[in-house]
Amino acid sequence: MIRTFIAIEPPDRAINQIWDVVSSSKRSVSEKVNWVLREQLHLTLLFLGDTKENDLQDIYSIVSEVISKNQGKHLLKKIHLDLHDKKNPRIVWLSGELQDNLLESVIQKIKREIMVLGYKFENRRFTPHITLGRIKSGLSLTSQYNLLSQPVSVDDFEMNKIVVYKSELNPAGPRYYNLYEQLTDKTN
What we know:
The chain has 188 residues and is an alpha+beta fold. It contains 4 helices and 9 strands; from the N terminus they run βαββαββαβαβββ.
């Protein structure tokens, strides 16, 4: 079994802007945070968790088929810095809104198809986000204020590539490995 998830790889321009946010976030908090590496930045769509390696080809086929039937431009807009849980923050992330429901519909279709393989998913509303760091211990109110009051300048961006990643957890933080990728719009 390997841990997997499905995500969008932001375009280079967005990665540069996101990395500027990570750099300023590092300066605004004094607590221990495991910041995501630049090359590991991604927009999480669907966490699969423990995945049988012999199911991977079926999962790749599902992603490819659903994406090919739902071509289009998927735009993330109104991007802002946030904490996953403000009462007990453990994750610093960028969140945003989808331009339309097309991407959420695609995720639901992928979920349904993967469920046929025997996988179960939590019944939560999809929140598009890019994890920037994982907080190792509590985050003071001062650090929360400093973090959330900093300006964020990340342009709206099109999501052109969907990726199935392998996730390996280790003390220094997770490492992600690209297993499969599919363009979301053939015109790109």
